[in-house]
């Protein structure tokens, strides 16, 4: 699951879904060379990529470093936490018989799923620590209800029987690159056609940004193709924030293109890991970044790079030039 966030400007993160995050490179032992800050390192590369981490690197290589290598903590946000809650409700609703999958039933699941979320991720309690009367929490839960209700205007769960919910997928490409992620819902038609569905609690992007939004879905489609040798028939993004559904019917060439793109991205990440050159790329999305205090673009200093580095070679500077498809 790529947990969605409010508004199209805030970056998505599956990071409410820590299990979908890529593994960080294993730090090598500290270098023993006493005379130089530039040392040889054995090849260190990320073990795997998820759509969110791939998007992080495309957005800002330094952000990727902070999240994957430094593993700097990030505060939970109301929007992302609400996204996690709504996803849990929509998933659990399918436990009920088809005829009972109604909006009131879905809304009745919210309090219990909120309790479960607080148990599994106690840090989310901080979000409402300064709300002793519970007014902000009530508004927040009310917005979660509205998002759940809106889903019923977009899809009819009484007519759906998902083949999978919250499906963890992982595939290793011939190059060794491991791709992983969690798909919100997989529908399989009687004819065998596969539809991959992802819920977003934010708003649908403007058409010129739709391609970026589809990157995550094509990533999943690539993993499904590599695992099952089946090209999904349809990719479907359900935007609960704006009440839109974005669909795309991929062809094999789309998936091959995404695979090439991910290999290029992986190579850029590998080079950055080895050289320690993680360039900040400031954009308006910096407003959502938790790491401004460590970012040179905002007068901060990154923590000491925890891995041995080698001197960059000419041509190593490919990092940071990637963009969605
Ligand atoms: S503040 Fe902006 S430039 Fe700095 S790390 Fe975060 S996203 Fe990158």
From TrEMBL:
GO MF annotation list: helicase activity
GO biological process, one term: DNA repair
The PD-(D/E)XK endonuclease-like domain, residue ranges: 48-296
Signal peptide: none
Location of the region described as Disordered in the Swiss-Prot/TrEMBL record: 1-35, 304-325
Pfam hit, one: PDDEXK_1
Entry keyword set: ATP-binding, DNA damage, DNA repair, Helicase, Hydrolase, Nucleotide-binding
Full protein name: Recombinase RecB
Organism: Streptomyces resistomycificus
